[in-house]
Amino acid sequence: MLAPLFDNIPLMIMLVGMLVGIASTLVGTFLVLRGSSMLSDAIGHSIVFGIVIVWLLTHQQSGPVQIVGAALTGLLTVFLTELLVNTQRVKKDAAIGLVFPVLFSIGVLLLNLYARDVHIDTHTVLLGEIGFVWLDTVSIGGYPVPQSLLSMGAMTLLNGLFVLVFFKELKLATFDAPLAKALGFAPGVLFYALLMLTSGTAVAAFDAVGAVLFVAFVIVPPSAAYLLTNRLWLMFVYGMVISVLSSVSGYYLAVAWDVSIGGMMAVMTGVFLLLAFLAGPHYGLLAQLARRRGQRRLNENRTLAVHLYNHEGEPEQAVENVTRALREHLHWDAAKARRVVQRSREQGHVLQEGELLHLTPAGRAIAREILEPAKF
Known about the structure:
It is a single chain. The chain is mainly alpha-helical and about 375 residues long. The chain is about 75% helix and about 5% strand. The chain has helices spanning about 5, 10-35, 40-60, 65-85, 90-115, 120-125, 145-165, 165-175, 175-180, 185-205, 210-230, 230-255, 260-280, 285-310, 315-320, 325-330, 335-345, 360-370, and strands spanning about 135-140, 145, 350-355, 355-360. The strands form two sheets. A two-stranded antiparallel sheet has the order 1-2. A two-stranded antiparallel sheet has the order 3-4.
């Protein structure tokens, strides 16, 4: 039963991509909401330093020790960043830009000095190659299972458990850190635990998609989800769905166009971000245009109602409360005047008798609400 599953190379590649995306979304959502998403970029690069140090100490190229080493490097990156920020001489973004290039450069130098003959190189760490994950397998029950599938599965499970167990605490610490601290939730500890998991996810993912592409999965799906919903749990759902869709569509497009699979998966996350930016129900460009258009139409209807109300019952009503007068007094062209009158009639705010326009009770109430707000 399982043999055809593990022999299906495209499925294995897509599964690894999905797990990288899901694991990254679980930690990246909180980083995006905290405005600390670029820390994932810093961690993604600085883990090179941790990987090299662990290899120099243990001569292990992968496994739990490497993940712990990378996690500690991530914490070191954040600690040094906070140290610089606390001097009040540099801002946080500048501090991040100062710290991670130093750690990354030291890692690259150590690689070139002491690990030239070892299968650890900057290209592998930064870019990876998800198309070859099926070559590095572990035998489980007689079936060859990709190592990346196991490591990313473990990290996805660990990240999921962390978010599930500490969901309320993480939510409160993200949106109201002072209150979380007052309630004894230790938001600082939670944040550092989150960064440790981010570092662990990065080192587990670098064999498959590389640190650079890992950053795309951490930041882009949660950002796209943020454009789609205001509810935290839905952000996780949308982010994971986008990660899955990006992995599947990225694989097939990469095969069709003969380009990098991991790179195309990252590109597809950008495509979904663009779609969310355009069509998101709350913050999408089209939704904003529709709201502005609706507000403009509402203002036009109100302006017409006020104009008619001001001249209602007055001697000049027969001259002022006609469509052609709107062009002179409201500076509307003929087409706009006809359009607004027609819309107000359809909405039951205006009645027309010949050329004369009359307010209905509903239209009169709108005008009074604007002109006499204290009475309403």
